[in-house]
Write a structure and sequence with these properties.
By secondary structure, the protein is of the alpha/beta class. It contains eleven helices and eight strands. The chain has one domain: 3-Layer(aba) Sandwich (Rossmann fold), CATH 3.40.50.1820. It has an eight-stranded mixed β-sheet with strand order 1-2-4-3-5-6-7-8, with helices on both faces.
Amino acid sequence: MTLPPALSGERIEFEGAGTGRVSAYVDGRGPPLLLVHSVNAAASAAEVRPVHDHFRDTRTVFSPDLPGFGFAERSDRAYTPRLMTDALHATVDQIVRRCGDGPVDALAASTGCEFLARAAAERPQRFRRLALVSPTGFSGRRQRRGPPGSTYGQAWLHRALRGPGWGGALFRGLTRPGVIRYFLGRTWGSKAIDETLWAYDVLTTRVPGAEYAPLHFLAADLFSADIHTVYEALPHPVWVSHGVRGDFTDYRGLARVRGSGPWEVDVYPTGALPYFEVPGPFLDRADRFFAG
C-alpha cells in the first residue's frame, strides 16, 4: 500500500544523529513554526492538520512525522524519548538551513509535548515560544523527577507485548477501523471525531513496520520519568491548553510545575485536540501567543 500525504506542501526527508530517516511536511512562507504530533498506535503529522493549514498563510510550517510513524523510518529498534527528541533537533537543523539562524516557535500535542520540552530545555537558544496542547506528565499528584533521561518503560513489559510473534497480531487488533474510532472517541470525549483524521489513521497503521513504535508506547518506553524537571527547565514563554472531555482532563500537576519563563493556561470546552473542535477561538489565541 502507498501511503498518501497527510498534509499539504513539500515533503522532505533527512537524518539526524542516530535518528534514521525523518520526514517532514514544509509549507508556507514567513517565520518558521514547528508542529509536533502525539504518539499512539495510529499517530502521524495528520494530527496537527488544522494548525498546519492555518499557519501556512503566514509562516513556514514544518510538521514532521516522528520516528516510527507516517513517512519516517519504521525499523525494529528502541523507540525512546531520546530518539524522538533527537528527531526534533534534526528538524530544527533543517529549519535553520531554510529559514536562518533565529529561534523557532513550536506547538506540540499530548506526548509530543514531552519531546518538544526536552528539545527546548537542551537547546533553549533554538526556540522562542512553546505551545503545549494537552501535554502529558501533569495527571495526578505524583512527582516525576526521576534520573535524567529515565522513562517508565519496563523491558519485560515490552517483551511480553511483543512476544514470540504475537506483537503484530496485538497491534492489528488495536488498529482495526472500529477500534481506532473508539480511541479517537475517547480523545474527543464524544463520537463527533474528525473523520478525515480517522481515515488517515487507518491507512498509516497498514504500513510495514507500523507496530514497532506503538508497542514501545504501550510498554511506557516513551513516557519520561523526569518530565517535571524538564518542564521546569524551560526559560521560554509557554502556553498550555487542554479540554474538559475525554481521557485527558487531569492537570492537577500543572500548578506545581512552572518553568523559569511565563506560563499561560487556557481551557476549552472540548476534548484533547481543541484545534479540531473550536478552530476559530483556538487559532486566534495561537496567533496572539506566537505574535509575542
